[in-house]
Amino acid sequence: MKLKTVYICENCGFNSQKWLGKCPDCDAWNSFQEDVVEKNPHRKHQGISTETTPLSLEQKPEDRLVTGISELDRVLGGGIIEGSMMLLSGEPGIGKSTLTLSICEKVAALGKKTLYVSGEESPSQIGMRAQRMGIKNENINMLGETNLENIMASLESEKQGSKPDFVVIDSIQVISSLELPSIAGSINQVRYCTETLMQFAKKNRIPVLIIGHVTKDGNLAGPKILEHLVDTVLLIEGERYQNLRVLRGIKNRFGSTNEIGLFEMAEKGLLEVKDASKLFLEGRKADAHGSAITATVEGTRPLLIEVQALTNTTPFGYPKRAASGFDLNRLQLLLAVIQKHLGINVSNQDVYVNVVGGFRLNDPAADLAIIMAVISSLKKIPLPQDAIYIGEIGLSGELRNISNLEKRIKEATKIGFKQIISPKTTKDLNAALNHIS
User: Fold this and answer.
1) Which of 150, 267, 294, 357 has its CA 20 to 30 A from that of 277?
2) CB neighbour list of residue 36: distance below 8 Å, 6 or more residues apart
């Protein structure tokens, strides 16, 4: 067998004989990865006819395995679908393996046999983590293996005796097949191993969860086609030194991709956050300058978030602007609106904005709260404790309508907020400023 070195675009799979800075097929930059493939393979395959299925045939609802982790079941759309292929990704140390062990515990508690295949850690290491989390169940089996053929042989032998009801692969980047000459983690290896595991899952109606790494840019490592192969893509977000973890569905063939699950990192693993609004408002200082509350909606869940702003006269000619948990370009736009339409000079002010709790706030409904927090810090006047600010700001200084306003107001009223400053009650920024005492 003759081998040759090629360069493959990890976004679209385009092959090149030499490395290219920009892919000519999908226009992605720095996306080519070196790989080794078989040179001039001559393979002939005889096709066979397969039976077709009429579209009008009544389909049975898919059977779901309810894990009992309500935040996970919410993101998945009600539970794990039998025979589905799920991909869980996130930064190193964010809690992927911890969440996976919790899922295995819940599945095993239902009497389902679980097989945890680890290629990165030994079974003893995972056992120590399980012991720390208080997980003890005879239905959870461990396998330390990186060779795909050995893994499939173990799955087949398990299937002949008592097949597993749930399989975990940790992680797909370290699994390799002897059928391919390339190293583990290469584009061809990741794609081939995923396809093999997917065929096993679909054929035997066994759900498979694979863990994937992310690059330094926060994107899923490996070929982009990996995300297209699986049924569900789950992403764990959060700051490493914050306790909050957000489980977000990037892709879901069996449910919505708008739902999120909230977890809190504790000593014994990830704990579900039942009342997220109170978590984000916990520890709020009374009569603090530059603090405002807004309401955002993630999927079907309204959340109350505290945003903080700090202004300080800059000692330099060019003021500094920084944001944590909020888009910096959006902050620059809102500061321009303050300068233009409210006549408040911020051109000589360093402005810092922070979203409390490590949450990433992308909802435009937070615009009004950001502006009110900045003005509160600038004028050193605290905002009313029972006021909440909801609304998108236009470039003309007007408050624009937002989606799910009634749901946001209902959540704020339930927590105890009495003054709702929103497009429903206020039409422009000047009217909103009247609420600063």
Assistant:
1) 267
2) 3, 4, 5, 6, 181, 182, 183, 186
β-strands 232-237, 85-90: how paired? Answer: parallel
Count of other CB atoms within 10 angstroms of residue 116 = 24
Residue 183 φ/ψ, nearest 5 degrees: -85, 165
- CATH number for the domain spanning 429: value is 3.30.230.10
User: For residue 193, what are the CA distances in angstroms to 196, 241, 260?
Assistant: 5, 34, 29
User: Tens of pLDDT along 50-104?
Assistant: 777 786 766 666 788 899 999 999 999 889 999 999 999 888 888 888 899 999 9
* Beta pairing class for 114-118 and 85-90: unpaired
Cα-based angle 208, 102, 174 (whole degrees, multiple of 5): 50
Smallest CA-to-CA distance from 257 within 65, 62, 74, 66 is with 74
Q: Contact at 8 Å (CB) between 247 and 72?
A: yes
- List, for residues 242-252, the tens digit of each pLDDT value: 788 889 888 99
CA-based nearest residue to 383, from 396, 399, 370, 402: 370
The model's pTM is: 0.76
Residue 54 amino acid letter: P
Q: Which domain holds residue 107?
A: 64-274
Angle at 384 between CA 378 and CA 387, to 5 degrees: 115
Report the CATH number at residue 248.
Answer: 3.40.50.300
Establish if 56 belongs to a structural domain. Answer: no
Do 255 and 111 fall into the same domain? yes
Q: What are phi and psi of 186, to 5 degrees?
A: -75, 165
